[in-house]
Amino acid sequence: MNTADIPAKDESTPETAPPPRPRTWLVRTRRTALAVVLAVLLPLLAAETALRVNDMGDPADGTYTRNRDAIWLGHAWIDGRKSDADVEALARRLRGTGIRDLYVHSGPLEDDGTLPASDYPKARWLIGAVHRLLPGVRVQAWLGDKLASESPDGLRLDRAATRAAVVRSTREILAVGFEGAHFDLEPLHSGDRDYLSLLDDLRRETHARHALLSVAAHQIDPLPAFHSFWGTTTGHPKWWSQAYFGQVARRVDQIAVMSYDTMQPLESLYGGYVAQQTSLALEVTPPSTDLLMGLPFYHENRFGHWARAETVPAAVRGVRLGLSRTDADRPRFGVALYVDFAATEGDWTAYKDDWVR
User: Fold this and answer.
1) Please, what is the angle between helix 267-284 and helix 312-326, to 10°?
2) Strand pairing partners for 147?
3) Residue 111 in 3-state DSSP?
4) DSSP3 helix / strand / coil % (the chain, rounded to 5)
């Protein structure tokens, strides 16, 4: 083509600018965000699907109470607020159920491990009344405190003097007539060696007095090492490793899993979660230790707990499924009801109909 044939450029007419290219950093940021979301959501979706599958099927015949159940009772039973009529009503409620142990709130411990006798002024009265009205039912002192594991305040298990004080407090309260000491210390991180040391000392003390040593236990990792991941991301490693759960279980006479506050939004997912927790706990709890799975006898709606999901029927179904799949004939097994003062008639009916039979 002859250059003379090319029309001259009209300088008065601006050229149409090409569309701007997206900024490279913005594209990378979006891609990274999407990858992070998928990395979190896909394992979570897979885990929830597994829980739903875990809730399927039918429990084995005979997976009902072995008459080793327990209930947590509030402090009102030993501080003077309850009367003879209340104990009689409690006895009527418990007769014909599988409840053998009462964990009566008798603390909390002071942060230095001491326990004033003024905290349990009516203990002897309650123990005597229970023995009279419910022969064979044992009364244990429920002791606990907030640990200084995630804040500067609370009981410090790393101090030998504090652990020694806890043992002395246990000796003093057992002298009142309690048949066991039940400990609930939170938040207790997986792998805490000071807690294991305390349990060794407490076991010597309780067994010397022919009393029981019982503990409330954190849930077990639903995924391998999940407590480490959760602790790193939130600062609160809610779960214990299965191995650590077994170390605790081997040091006590009873271990009660706090199988509630699970963050599950649906009954089917909660039931599957409890079935999984039951199996995990059964696998590492020695036959000589009573294993109890907690039932939610309370109704709250907050982060970590939805009352519509965490129901007694769903929990009992999960317990029976986990028991059926792992050790259906295990004799030293039961459920623990949390807690008496928040329970409804519906909770009691579900416990009796679905578990006691």
Assistant:
1) 40
2) 155
3) coil
4) 45, 15, 40
Q: Which amino acid is at 214?
A: S
215 neighbors 221 (Cβ within 8 angstroms): no
Phi-psi region of 134 (alpha: psi -120 to 50; beta: other; left: phi over 0): beta
Q: Residue 341 and residue 298: Cα distance in Å, rounded?
A: 8
Query: Once rounded to an integer, what is the mean pLDDT over residues 8-30?
Result: 62
Q: Measuring CA to CA, which residue among 199, 317, 221 is closest to residue 268?
A: 317
Residue 253 Cα distances to 73, 132, 297, angstroms: 19, 25, 24
Task: Report the alpha-carbon distance of residue 109 to residue 154 in Å, rounded.
Answer: 10
The tokens describing 27, both together, are 């594209």
Question: pLDDT band at 124, cuts 50/70/90?
Answer: very high
d(Cα 60, Cα 66) in Å, to the nearest integer? Answer: 14
Residues 281, 283, 289, 293, CA torsion sign: positive
For residue 81 the two structure tokens come to 């607020």
Q: Are 312 and 355 in contact (CB under 8 A)?
A: no
Question: What is residue 233's predicted lDDT score, i.e. its pLDDT?
Answer: 79
Cβ-contact 313, 354 below 8 angstroms: yes
- Residue 13 per-residue DSSP state: S
pLDDT at 225: 85
Asked if 310 and 264 touch (Cβ cutoff 8 Å), the reply is yes
Return phi, psi of residue 102, to 5°.
-110, 120
DSSP letter, residue 339: -
1 band by pLDDT with thresholds 50, 70 and 90: low
Q: Are 267 and 218 in contact (CB under 8 A)?
A: no
Over the range 148-186, which residues count as b (16 or more CB within 10 Å of their CB) and which as e? Answer: bbeeeebbbbeeeebbebbbebbbebbebebbbbbbbbe
**For residues 116 and 119, what is the distance between their CA atoms, to the nearest angstrom?**
6
Find, among 158, 170, 226, 237, the residue nearest to 196 by Cα.
Answer: 158
Q: What is the DSSP string of 149-169?
A: TSSSSSB-TT-HHHHHHHHHH
- CA–CA separation, 110 vs 165, rounded Å? 10
Say how far apart CA 47 and CA 239 lie, in whole Å.
Answer: 16
Helix (H, G, I), strand (E, B) or coil at 71: strand
